[in-house]
Amino acid sequence: MRLSLYIHIPFCRYKCAYCDFVSYPLLKEDIEKQYVDRLLEEIDWWHQALPDATLYTAYIGGGTPSALPLSLLEKIVLKVRKWGGPVEFTVEANPEDISRDWLSHIISMGINRVSVGVQTLSDELLSAWNRKHTAKDSIRAIEYLASSGINFNVDMIYPTYLPYGISMSFRRDIKTIVAMKPNHMSVYMMDIHEGTLAHALIRGGKWGPVEEDILYEDMVWLYNFMGDMGYHHYEISNFALSGYESKHNIVYWYQDFYVGVGVSAWGFVNFVRYENVPTIKDYLQGSIQRKHEVVKGKDLLTEYGLMALRLIGEGISRFRWERLGGDWSILISRAIDMECVQITDDRLFVKDSPECIMLSNSVIEEMLEPWL
Ligand code: SF4
Asked: pLDDT tens digits, residue range 251-302?
């Protein structure tokens, strides 16, 4: 069995205004050390439970993995490599942590991909989002990444709400970053979740929504611009130079199996989805998984449809849909009059045009409505 591995590092130096992930302020080093020891045990446990599995990709995400001391990061990487050398081994990093020295250490450990959370090049926005790096830090980090030769992704956020008085720098930021030729870029819409500082600021009237027309025009511009610059728009939020599509993320979108380790991590192994405990206290005390669910029948089919339709130009394969018990003719009958859906003999997908991609969420929902 081919397997991927996700490793969650829940520590951050600060809490971003929009973030609702499980993250803890960097605690005392002994807590981080204990946490990493538990992670190593969990990886061992899975390795023993799945002796025939070959590790395909590994991803250390967070939180802020780059905030971990290198000695602890190295312990994790060595444990993973003992299981097998993943073809793609990614670590997430914040710009302020990326130095030439840090990069040469992680490359020598065996990590071959970095995903850097730049988010915006507006210092005003970074400060409003409570991020502690500047645009200058991000530019320097990208220059280091580019000159090191490592495969790297840049994460950006489109602000769906803006603090009053701060203007948008989105198009200029994208142009600046693309000029530095990352292999991969992700551009996510900012989601506002209850309980976050952003949510409170919106409710308090300090941040206002970006007009829908502006958002639409910016996205159409983005899709066209990235295409003109040679990037393959292969998933709604993801762009890659040819051959640099994220192998790890494709595992999730294809419903392939992956193990998730660490606090609040999820995994999907042999059609069982599990979720780990959400608090570091429970995790350190040794209770790990708290929920299991066998994903089968209609749920598996629906999940496949929802994920596959996000993959631009790929979409739903007839073979796979039918193998999962889906009725192809019902699906076709729903899609036949939809302007934004293309149907071939063996596939059905959202058309690769900026306008259709912008509408993809509602197209997907409408098409899969009988299965939702
Ligand atoms: S660095 Fe990432 S995980 Fe940490 S608070 Fe910010 S968005 Fe959340």
From this structure: 999 999 999 999 999 999 999 999 999 999 999 998 887 889 999 999 999 9
Which protein residue's CA is at the shortest distance from atom 8 of ligand 1?
Answer: 19
pLDDT at 27: 67
A 10 A CB-CB count for 303 gives 16
Give the structural domain span for 157: 2-251
Q: Nearest 10 degrees: CA dihedral of 51, 52, 56, 58?
A: -10
Number of domains comprising the chain: 2
Closest C-alpha to ligand 1, atom 3: 63
**Which atom of ligand 1 sits closest to the CA of residue 94?**
1
The residue contributing the CA closest to ligand 1 atom 7 is: 19
Could you tell me if residue 98 is inside a domain?
yes
- Is 76 in contact with 109 (CB distance < 8 Å)? no
Q: Which atom of ligand 1 is nearest to the CA of 18?
A: 7
- 10 Cβ closer than 6 Å to some ligand 1 atom: no
The CATH number of the domain holding residue 173 is 3.30.750.200
Structure confidence by residue, pLDDT tens digits, 121-144: 999 999 999 999 999 999 999 999
